[in-house]
TrEMBL record:
The keyword Repressor applies. CDD domains: HTH_GlnR-like (cd01105). Keywords: DNA-binding, Repressor, Transcription, Transcription regulation. GO terms for molecular function: DNA binding; DNA-binding transcription factor activity. Residues 24-90 form the HTH merR-type domain. It comes from the Bacteria. SMART domains: HTH_MERR. It comes from Melghirimyces algeriensis. This is DNA-binding transcriptional regulator, MerR family. SUPFAM superfamilies: Putative DNA-binding domain.
Length: 113
């Protein structure tokens, strides 16, 4: 199997996305956002790491990696950090609400069957 073919639909792999938690170094490498900037954004409350205890490496899940990418993109387009963070938070809430409705609809349809 072609490696690209096997990974092109990774966004549809819910199990993979739920397990995806990587360290700050990997996030920095993947996103191109310096680790120092990621730490600053966390200090400001824009993103949250999944720290297991004091002094442990910061680790980030899929949603926070997505936020980092979107915020960086908006900052590069000229948004301030605060306005980019707000816009991304609003966008994430809208998406979450839409998927909540889809889940309810799917459950209702399953119950009707």
């Amino acid at each position: 199997m072609d490696q690209k073919k096997g990974t092109e639909n990774v966004l549809l792999d819910v199990d993979f996305l739920q397990k995806l938690v990587v360290g700050i170094g990997e996030v920095s490498e993947i996103t191109g956002v310096p680790a120092r900037k990621i730490r600053y954004w966390e200090e400001k409350g824009i993103i949250q790491s999944e720290k297991e205890g004091e002094g442990t490496t910061r680790r980030y899940n899929y949603l926070n990696i997505k936020k980092i990418l979107l915020i960086q993109e908006l900052v590069e387009e000229g948004y301030t950090l605060d306005s980019a963070a707000k816009k991304v938070e609003d966008r994430m809430e809208n998406l979450n609400e839409a998927f909540r409705k889809l889940a309810t609809l799917a459950t209702d349809q399953k119950d009707d069957a």
